[in-house]
Amino acid sequence: MKKHIIFFLAEDDLSYSIAAILDGLIEELDGKVKFSSQKYLGAILTELKIMLRPNFARKSDTLKVIVYSISELYKERYKPVFNIPIFPAVSLGGCDYFGEEAVDIASELYSILSSRDRLNSEQVVHRLLRRARKIGSFNKVRIERSEDSKIRGGNPAVASFCKRVFEELMRKLDKLKREKKIDDMKYRKIKEIYIKLLGVKFLEIG
Q1: Are 154 and 203 in contact (CB under 8 A)?
Q2: Tens of pLDDT along 9-42?
Q3: Is the bond leading into 80 cis (omega within 30 degrees of zero)?
């Protein structure tokens, strides 16, 4: 069983509710959560690594919670990238749940982890799946996604999209430089802005 949970959020009330629940969870588990983030065009990927200790005798375990926060302007573009029809959504155990069900699963995650029960990551995911089955499965969609496309910092489709945008911007910038409409210093500054905006360093684009 996969030991991670993936949320897909946009700029709507239900997505804001999930974000608030996750913020509260980070505060509740003070010191037990490590997180990192990466920026893409119209999206931010945040990865939470939650340290679990099933019992004192065993090594700690890690539960990954991945959050894609999508700008309203790019929401429709990312739906086919992630193969989801609406936001918010959560991917759990190979299935997707949407709308209020996604909020319910986020709430259940908060309840499980704040209870201080000594569970490992697999047990947490199992409890969430059990809860998901109880709240109904009429809008559950079976999905086939590779492990790499979700867990790595760069979803291949997102990376490819950002790379194309970056290359197009650089072609225009190079043209301005050739036509001597900008000097070398301004060229470098604008290029740095593009790199930061599109997160191309994370995508290994030269």
Answers
A1: yes
A2: 999 999 999 999 998 888 888 778 888 888 888 8
A3: no
**Closest listed residue to residue 82, CA positions, set 98, 101, 100, 106:** 98
| End-to-end CA, the chain | 37
**Tokens 């569970």 sit at which residue?**
119
- The reported pTM is 0.65
The label of the residue with tokens 């992630």 reads 82
DSSP letter (8 states) at residue 140: -
d(CA 20, CA 137): 25
3-state helix, strand, coil in the chain (%, to 5): 50, 20, 30
User: Of 135, 16, 31, which is closest to residue 127 (Cα–Cα)?
Assistant: 135
